[in-house]
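Record Sodium, potassium, lithium and rubidium/H(+) antiporter, 536 aa.
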Amino acid sequence: MPLIELSLLLLLAIAVGGALVHWTPLPLPILLVVVGVVASFLPGLGSVEVDPELFLLLFIPPILFADAWVLPRRDFVHTLKPVLLLALGLVVLTVVVVGYAMHWLIPAMPLAVAFTLGAIVSPTDAVATVATTQLLPLPARIVHIVNAESLLNDASGLVAFKLAVAAAATGLFSSTAVAGNFVHLAGGGIIIGIAVEWVGRELRQRLIRLHAGDPVLQTLLTILIPYGAYLAAEALHVSGILAVVAAGLWASGQEVKGLTADARQHAREVWRMLSYVLNGAVFVLLGLQLRRMLSGVDDFAPLDLVLYALVLWALLMVLRIAWVWTSAHLRFRLRWGWTGSTTGPDPKRLLLVSWAAVRGSITLATALSVPAVVAAGTPFPERDLVVFLAAATIILTLAFNGVPLPWLIRKLALNSDEDSPNEERTARAEIARAALAAVADVASDLTDREDIAFVEQLLSRYRGKLELHEGDPGHASLRATHIALRRRLRLAAIAAERQRLRQLRETNVINDETQRIIEAELDERELVSMISVDRG
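=>
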């Protein structure tokens, strides 16, 4: 099928899945896979093939960059030690154990190819996990660990994948050479990523100084950064994946100076949509290709394939549970970066971190990027089986880990706010106090009664914010009730304005352009009015 038609059908499938998810108990990733499987029976969609290199280039850089960009730096640093144990130690353990175990279970699979499979299935997917838990309370530390682990093990797993593919293609494997190559690929990738992001940020600042700070242009440049980092690193034969991750982490919290509020809001919305579409497309493509994947492994008995997939899933879970519990108790005993309870690791939290092991877009993208042939022109050994087992791992983790996860969270009854004081309320109180001081300073020279009346109204509003976030709980609750009532009144007034505006357009009193201009203003006012009560 031509690329344009396929792209449009993917977007339609994502939209269908996004609409249906509100009426089904299935998480969005699983539902998109189902939509893809159903769509594969349509004419022309049963034999969809994606070029591995194009797939890796198109999907991986923006997905990883977006995940790194929104990762809180401070919390990333605070959870760095447990995250590194998961993202590096567990990945290496997974590659080695899965490699030897699958080579023993499937003798036809060469050891280097089995290591490739281990590297493919080692990264977890925070996007798939968040999709199943976004409406449920989770302790902040667990969220940060799971997200940071997913980001870093994407990088370490993909570097391990690249080395394993090279070993499978050449038939040569040396632990010393692998260690040296890992350092070279990782170090070079990190340097290139930081350099590209710095150049991109300097370019955006220069354009702003030249009065070219258009929000669309600024957002477009941020989208180009991950692709630029990836391509530059690959051209220099270092890790493009780590370059993207490093660029995203370096960009996190370093907004370009001079950006307007419109530019920041535009970038957030565009990246939100881009991440949604790309991750959704990966799961739909997985569903579209499942039938072809099954036909590619027809040399194996169906029961054997089921056995291999279940053994692989069970092995991944045993390794993860053992690693999470062992590393946590060792850190507690050795006091190495331990910030948890003085009585030891909490079994509930360990269980939750252990079970949050959903595989997703990165695993599939990596599996599909396995080359069809090696350098000598011969087929890549057992490529179809590797891709099938990777796809089966995604489906099994979504079904066995992702679907029960909301139930598990409710059952464990962990308090989402127990990790730290509510710093958002503290920050809101502090900025309200700063605003009070600024308004009072500017108003000291005012003499006009209307201006003074407006100042009093503004000061009253900020005093109310302080009372809401720092005052007596009883008064704060009463004020929150008043704010909710005022919000309903504002929304009712805006709804009446919008209805009358559309009546004016329908009777040709105004034209479409006038309607769009005024309706955009009404939309902005409505969004401001719909801010939750606790934000004041």
